[in-house]
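Ticket #4471: structure export looks truncated?
Reporter: QA, pipeline team
Priority: medium

Steps to reproduce: submit the single chain below to the structure queue and open the exported record.
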Amino acid sequence: MTDWSFEAEQFRQAVWETAGWWSAPHTRMRPLIFPDGNAWCALYGRDLQEGVAGFGPTPAAACVDFDKNWNAQTLKGAQGDDTPHVISTGADTPHVISTGAEK
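Actual output as written to the record:
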């Protein structure tokens, strides 16, 4: 009888790596990737001030930096200030979902 444990482990590892790649922020959010001077930029959002960006010498390196920066983001107002967190629904009036004072 053949021992398939090595092949099963290789398959499990391949599935695990593929699942990790598909759940990465740059694959889920699909930032715009473009050359910026002598580097590559991965940008999600309108601009660098409002969005999340990553930079690197290659598109892949820019995506790795984007993932790091995406995961480092914090919600504005999360430090206990009274800034309301607003979501846009496309309607005329945005909805306030919470404020820092509720903590």
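Status: closed, not a bug. The export was complete when the record was re-opened. Leaving a note from the reviewer for reference: The chain has three helices and five strands.
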